[in-house]
Amino acid sequence: MLGIWIAGLALPLAVGGLAAWLTMGSMATYGALVQPPLAPPPWVFPVAWTVLYLLMGIASVLVFRADAPQADKKRALTLYGVQLAVNFVWPLLFFRAGLYGASLVWLIFLLVLVLATIVAFRQVSRAAAWLLVPYVLWLLFAAYLNAAVWVLNR
Q1: 133-152 and 100-124 are packed helices; what angle lies between their axes, rounded to 10 degrees?
Q2: Residue 42's pLDDT is what?
């Protein structure tokens, strides 16, 4: 059982860690951009994402361990995996490639996938679904920041 928790927490943290490693040094470029109102200081991003990845991991373990039909769990965890892969690409588009318009479209795609994941998680574990709500809220905030950066830095 401990192994499932370790794997469940390690997977999203590893995805986020790899994306952070691949975009290292890009925060200086981001800091040089015209920032929108409400833009947080750079240190907020790794803290927020670490918490969100931990919540995602806990939610995935709750779904994995739930007493629910295997087909529902498989569908929910497949969506979870897809959204995690899409999540991995966004910082590469935004920070590394500087494709602010494309990254906004990608972020909206991610948001739709996360909402679908919440619906699928809710069928298996309401607690797991609720654990993803802060993620959706952060993605909405990230979409505001992404859109504003795109508009202000053309």
Answers
A1: 170
A2: 85
